[in-house]
Every structure is written in C-alpha cells, then in structure tokens.
Amino acid sequence: MGADVWLVVGLGNPGPSYAGNRHNAGFMVLDVLAGRAGGRFKSHRARADVLEGRLAGTRVVLAKPRTYMNESGGPVKALRDFYKVPLDRVIVVHDELDVPFGAVRLKQGGGDNGHNGLRSITRSVGGGEYPRVRFGVGRPPGRMDAAAFVLKDFAAAERKELDLNVEVAADAVEALMTGGLEAAQNTFHAAP
User: Fold this and answer.
1) How far apart are CA 131 and CA 9, in angstroms?
2) What are phi and psi of 109, to 5 degrees?
3) Residue 70, annotated ligand binder?
4) Are 119 and 140 contacting, i.e. CB atoms less than 8 angstroms apart?
5) What's the pLDDT at 3?
6) Any catalytic annotation for residue 115?
7) Any idea what the CATH number is for the domain that residue 134 is in?
8) What is the mean pLDDT of each run of 10 residues along the chain (192 residues)?
C-alpha cells in the first residue's frame, strides 16, 4: 500500500472486562471509525484486529492490537511493515491523563509521558515521531494511583458525554488525515 495509506491504531486492552475502561478510549474511537468506513474488523496475523477501507476519501487501515496495552508496539511495527506505511502516517489514538475529560488534543511526536502503550510503540518502531490523537480522561481523584484510574470504567456522569466525545475524537482523526496536523489542532484545540 505504502505512502498513500494511513495506519490508524487505537490503543486499549483486549477482552470484555476492559471494554469500558478509560484506557480503552482508543478502541472506542476506532469502533466509531470502523462504522464510518462501513466495515468490520478482521483478525490479522500481526496480532491485531484490522479493517482496510476508506475514510474521508482516503485509504486507511484501522487497527486494534490484540495484545495488552504495554505490548502494543509489536503489532504496530508488524502492521507498519506489512502495509509499508511511513511513520508520519501512523496515527495513534490513546487515552491521556494530562488532558481534561472531554477534550481532544493532537500532537506530532513527543515522549510517552508514562503511557506504556506509547512507550512500547516508540521502542518497536524506532522513534516517537508519529501523530497522536489524545483522548482526555483527566486526572485521578485524590491520591488514586494513575494506573488504577485508567483501568476503571468511565464514571456515570462521564458516560453521559462519552459517546459524543468519542465521535469528536473520530472527527479529529479524519481531520488530521485530510487537512494535516496544524489545521486539525486549530479546530479541535479551540473546542471546549
């Protein structure tokens, strides 16, 4: 496929017990994108569920690694090699503690900020210069451990807005693919 395709990876943990966790925001966004692409995920030998299709008139491979979050890098590298996707066309969608709940932020490259999924991907693909769509989950309350917080389901009050927030994050992925990072940032960083 090569330079004309985007690889969009949503991060999460496999299995129904994790489905509603904050850490699975990436999977939630990918499910919305799959609906928009009109396809279904199929098992790929790269240890990921994959959908090949079109979004916003652009060729795309949507992927949800079937490994646990901290081992996401292996499937991402295998998919990148298989589809021959340049690193700057690998979009990673993930939960972000340092972004308030309901906000979406986009960035190009950077560190992993303690996110084990990003750390695994950066290590596996040989660098962190890939675009990210960061889904805000906010900080844990009180003294709660961040790792415990992201493995909890969204709170009832958050769930009332969650579907809309996931749709907005999916819009941000499409905007990044079609208009580039700066235009997408101008649109989505201005939003409340």
Assistant:
1) 11
2) 65, -160
3) yes
4) no
5) 73
6) no
7) 3.40.50.1470
8) 87 96 98 97 97 94 97 98 96 96 95 93 95 97 94 95 97 97 93 56
pLDDT at res. 1 = 62
- For residue 15, CA distances in Å to 2, 9, 173 come to 31, 17, 24
- Calculated CA dihedral for residues 95, 5, 42, 39, nearest 10 degrees: 90
Q: DSSP readout, the chain?
A: -GGGEEEEEE----SGGGTTBGGGHHHHHHHHHHHHHT---EEETTTEEEEEEEETTEEEEEEEESS-GGGTHHHHHHHHHHHT--GGGEEEEEEETTS-TT-EEEEES---TT-HHHHHHHHHHT---SEEEEEE--PPSTT--HHHHHTSBPPHHHHHHHHHHHHHHHHHHHHHHHH-HHHHHHHHTT--
Which pLDDT score is estimated for 100? Answer: 95
Q: How far apart are CA 32 and CA 20, in angstroms?
A: 14
Structure tokens at 56: 């916003």
What's the pLDDT at 190? 77
Q: Is 68 annotated as a binding residue?
A: yes
Question: Which range of residues forms the domain containing residue 7?
Answer: 2-188
Of these residues, 23, 44, 94, 115, which one is catalytic? 23
Binding site annotation covers 130?
no
Number of CB atoms found within 10 A of residue 44's CB? 20
Q: Looking at the 3D structure of the chain, how many domains does it have?
A: 1
